[in-house]
Amino acid sequence: MTSARKVLATAGCIGLFAHPAFADSKPLDATTRNAALHAIEDTIQKTYVFPELKTPLADKLEQANTAHRYDSDDADAFAQHVTEDMNAVAHDGHLYLTNDADEYAARLAPPKSDKGEDAYYRAVAIRENSGLVEQKILPGNIRYLKLTAFHWTPGLTPRAYDDAGRFLKDGDAIIVDLRENGGGDSDAADYFSKAFVAPNKGKPFYVLVDGHVGSAAEAVPYGLQQEKAAIVVGSTTYGAANNNKKFPIAPQFVLSVSYNRPLNPISHANWEGTGVVPDIVVRGSEALEAAELDALGKLAARPDVKAETLAEYKWSREGIDAHLHPVILPRGTLKNYAGTYGTITLRLADDGLRLSRSDRSRWEQDVLLTPMDAAGLFAVQGTDALRVRLNGTSLDLLHGSEDAREPFARAKP
Question: What is the 3-state secondary structure (H, E, C) of 316-335?
Answer without folding.
Answer: HHHHHHHHHCCCCCCHHHHH
